[in-house]
């Protein structure tokens, strides 16, 4: 499973398997592709399974009658990686990115969409999902900072537990800690097929900004390559379907959960790039990544970074008994904060992730912290996974939350 980590890039020239495709034309320029070296079911640099997008890239290269060359990069900070590979000329194409124009990366253009992907609900085979109300009363597991996590935190009648990664979420499902997982469909389908012997029913969903199309991203100005890849993808439609089945991508008709709640969810493209990595705003203050090596080097394993997200539920809980005496408004705000905001910011505002720990708002913003917090709550931060609350919270409720926040500032 992928986790956030520092960008790492390195190039590796991959020769096509003998006889697998038409031999490239002598002296043909390589079809240069960016991909993550360790992100199944999407891509992998080594091993028997190369991933949906790697196998598709090689099929496209065969149609183009070109050899293929990879630049491997960690997609945990995807836009940053793209800026430092495609824009520097290290590769020509990426398999794949959201086709939605909302997912903007300077210097890229896209082919026509070639596949639809979505979130999915994973549960026992006998569970039939018909609408979102079927999830009420069930012990739901969600992955931190994903669209389901954000959606369920804004709704009444749903009980959910948050996990750092898809791997931990599925382990919790296997152990019976939750009875339903609401997670990224391709990852759910692949893991269910490969690791859990199709133990669960994986139901794709649509609506609420939970689904979208994917396309191949190409460097801007390479119009002929876009047209050629479009033509290849159209001809490869049967093979694309077969690859989706091979890697367990959910392919049945999605269950539409309704559009009434779409306004509370950030756009599909803003939350999960189709590499499968949970997207967060590129605000990590790490140094700029190194340029890819000028000469091909063997692929290296990318070690997962230490996970900074909260563990299942909340990682630290302040007991009610130990809490200071609160005013009526602050006490009501505390209950509302823990219900609506504790998923991301921790119970009583304590979070192991300093940027999400709201006890330090005053220290961070000084005398402007109340105005800053109020505006942020109302308008949200969709780029960082925070929903817009102004249409959900009434003004008295917002004031109660602010009363509570005032009592916990360090």
Q: What this model shows, in words?
A:
The chain is of the alpha/beta class and 410 residues long. It is 29% helix and 17% strand. The chain contains 13 helices and 14 strands. The strands form two sheets. Strands 1, 2, 5, 6, 7, 8, 9, 10, 11, 12, 13 and 14 form a twelve-stranded mixed sheet that branches. Helix 1 (52-64) packs across helix 6 (223-235) and helix 9 crosses helix 13.
Structure characteristics:
single chain, alpha/beta, 12-stranded mixed beta sheet, two-stranded antiparallel sheet, 13 helices, 17% strand
Question: How are the elements arranged and paired?
Answer:
Layout: E1 9-14, E2 31-35, E3 38-39, E4 43-44, H1 52-64, E5 68-73, H2 78-83, E6 93-98, E7 108-110, E8 115-123, E9 139-143, H3 147-153, E10 159-163, H4 166-175, E11 180-184, H5 185-194, E12 201-206, E13 211-219, H6 223-235, H7 237-246, E14 255-256, H8 268-271, H9 328-340, H10 342-345, H11 361-365, H12 369-379, H13 395-408
Helix pairs in contact: 1-6, 9-13
Give a brief rundown of this model.
29% of the residues lie in helices and 17% in strands. The protein is built from 13 helices and 14 strands.
- Strand % is 15-25%
What string, H for helix and E for strand, traces the elements in order?
EEEEHEHEEEEHEHEHEEHHEHHHHHH
Q: What number is the mean pLDDT?
A: 77
Unreliably modeled segments:
1-22, 260-274, 276-323
Give the overall shape.
Answer: globular
First CA to last CA: what distance?
36 Å
Q: Biggest β-sheet, characterized?
A: 12 strands, mixed
Rg for CA atoms: 23 Å
- Count of beta strands: 14
Number of helices: 13
Structural class: alpha/beta
Helix content: 25-40%
């Amino acid at each position: 499973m992928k986790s956030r980590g520092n960008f790492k890039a390195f190039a590796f020239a991959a020769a096509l398997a003998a006889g697998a495709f038409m031999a490239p034309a002598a002296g043909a320029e390589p079809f240069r592709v960016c991909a993550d070296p360790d992100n199944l079911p999407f891509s992998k640099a080594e091993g028997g399974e190369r991933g949906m997008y790697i196998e598709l890239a090689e099929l496209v290269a065969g149609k183009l009658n070109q050899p293929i060359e990879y630049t491997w990069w960690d997609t945990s900070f995807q836009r940053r990686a793209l800026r430092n590979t495609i824009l520097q000329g290290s590769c020509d194409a990426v398999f794949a990115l959201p086709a939605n124009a909302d997912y903007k990366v300077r210097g890229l253009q896209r082919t026509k969409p070639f596949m639809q992907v979505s979130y999915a609900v994973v549960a026992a085979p006998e569970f039939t999902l018909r609408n979102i109300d079927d999830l009420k009363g069930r012990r739901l597991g969600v992955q931190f900072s994903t669209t389901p996590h954000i959606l369920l935190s804004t709704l009444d009648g749903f009980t959910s537990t948050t996990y750092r990664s898809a791997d931990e979420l599925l382990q919790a499902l296997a152990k019976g800690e939750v009875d339903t997982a609401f997670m990224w469909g391709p990852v759910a389908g692949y893991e269910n097929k490969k690791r859990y012997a199709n133990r669960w029913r994986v139901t794709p969903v649509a609506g609420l900004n939970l689904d979208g199309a994917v396309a191949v991203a190409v460097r801007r100005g390479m119009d002929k390559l876009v047209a050629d890849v479009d033509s290849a993808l159209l001809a490869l439609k049967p093979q694309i379907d077969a690859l989706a089945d091979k890697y367990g991508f959910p392919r049945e008709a999605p269950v539409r959960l309704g559009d009434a709640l779409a306004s509370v969810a950030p756009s599909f493209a803003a939350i999960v790039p189709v590499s499968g990595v949970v997207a967060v705003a590129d605000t990590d203050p790490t140094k700029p990544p190194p340029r890819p090596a000028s000469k091909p080097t063997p692929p290296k394993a990318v070690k997962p970074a230490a996970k900074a997200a909260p563990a299942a539920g909340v990682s630290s809980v302040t007991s009610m008994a130990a809490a200071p005496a609160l005013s009526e408004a602050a006490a009501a705000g505390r209950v509302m904060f823990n219900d609506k905001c504790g998923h991301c910011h921790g119970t009583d505002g304590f979070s192991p992730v300093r940027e999400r720990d709201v006890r330090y708002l005053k220290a961070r913003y000084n005398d402007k912290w109340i105005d800053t917090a109020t505006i942020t709550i109302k308008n949200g931060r969709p780029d960082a996974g925070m929903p817009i609350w102004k249409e959900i919270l009434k003004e008295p409720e917002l004031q109660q939350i602010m009363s509570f926040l005032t009592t916990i500032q360090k």
